[in-house]
Specification:
Oligomer: single chain
Low-confidence stretches: 2-9, 150-158
Number of domains: 1
Number of helices: 2
Radius of gyration: 15 Å
CATH architecture: Roll
CATH class: Alpha Beta
Shape: globular
Mean pLDDT: 77
Order of helices and strands: EHEEEHEEEE
Strand content: 35-45%
Distance between the termini: 26 Å
CATH superfamily: Gamma-glutamyl cyclotransferase-like
Structural class: alpha+beta
Amino acid sequence: MKQSQSQSQSLPAVNYVFVYGSLRSDLPATVRHIRSYQQWSGAQQPVIRTAVTWGKLFWLRQFPGMLIPSEEFNFKPELVKGQLLEFKADQMVGVLRLLDQIEGYYESGHPSENLFSRKLVDCQVVDEAGEPYDTITAWVYTPNLIPIGSDYAAMKLD
């Protein structure tokens, strides 16, 4: 499984978002945000599947953050369980704008101005027994704060 790829300026045709923490569909705030988006846009409910990807979860005092393996970080990656949200192609721009606002990501801004970055990662969809059966590329939000142990440093990534 390919582990990660940074986002380019043009938006690739990816209709999936991997969520691992506060954006999971079983949390009230996320459901409320997605329902609000659906009401004003006419968007349909996303297809939700259980999935895993390589990374490392950290608690950033108020919320979780997942780093994905890269040359910038030296850590042993683990399989992180989350949800894969599938949206219709014509909904993705609006969905990403909404999630960008929630995650404090500004596409035109410098990374130091963003709380999270939006990146592409390969995920494995798993069945009820936890067995992988499909690999799908999805957007994921990763923190721009550098975790140190279970805490974090107030230094931003470039």
